[in-house]
Amino acid sequence: MRKFLVPILLLLGACAAPPVSPPLPAPAAPAPSTGPAEAWDIVKSSLEVRVYRDGPMAQFGHNHLITSNGLTGRIDLREPRTASGFRLELPIESLAVDDAAERAAAGEDFAASVPAKDRDGTRRNLLGGEVLDAARQPVVVLSADAISGGPDNYTARVRVALRGEERLIDVPLTLEETDGERLLVHASLRLRHADLGLVPFTAAMGALRVRDDFEIDCRLEARRAT
């Protein structure tokens, strides 16, 4: 049963077949800009998704850690910053499940080791047709519909293209420019399965299940595009 205990990204999780979502509205018009866009390319990224076991039989499962360094894309900075935009891509094949080194650095909730067969089985299910469906859409696309806030803390309305559908989520993020040559972005949030149109996996009449909420932490480093 352990290999089924993973939600999704994002993100990410083991679940029943998701409901079909209605079409989303077109992106909102960006805030008026006072100048041209400055293009920044993503040169380094880290994505971490923390998924927790739940239920009276939780001891038969694992907390799972899903990680990737595969996010790529471009950020277009404008003045004001709320007129900026971005488009990121995450190859689903880049996702690692319960990497030993990553778990060791993730704290007490992930201290227990996960056997290789359970890691492999969980990853197969994660990429399979009932969850991420990598064969249908191998790349998750994240784009900014709108950005609000500032000057350092923002909220981005992010359009997530996954499994051939789109969802909108609000992502709090911080933005830091270093010496005019490096741009650092950090996003940390908690989602529920329903935010991505998914249903948490349950077994044994709910005694073994995935906790409905999961945590996402993402860090990006960008350099000026040449």
Fold and architecture overview:
The chain has one domain (2-14, 37-224): Lipocalin (Beta Barrel). The chain is 8% helix and 47% strand. It is built from 2 helices and 17 strands. The protein has helices at 100-105, 116-127; strands at 7-8, 12-13, 15-16, 38-51, 53-54, 64-68, 72-77, 85-91, 96-97, 139-149, 153-162, 165-178, 182-192, 199-200, 202-203, 208-210, 213-224. The strands form 4 sheets. The protein has an 8-stranded antiparallel barrel with strand order 4-7-8-10-11-12-13-17. The chain has a 3-stranded antiparallel beta sheet with strand order 5-16-15, with no helix packed on it. A hairpin with a 3-residue loop joins strand 12 (165-178) and strand 13 (182-192). The radius of gyration is 18 Å and the shape is globular. The model is unreliable at 1-17 (pLDDT under 50).
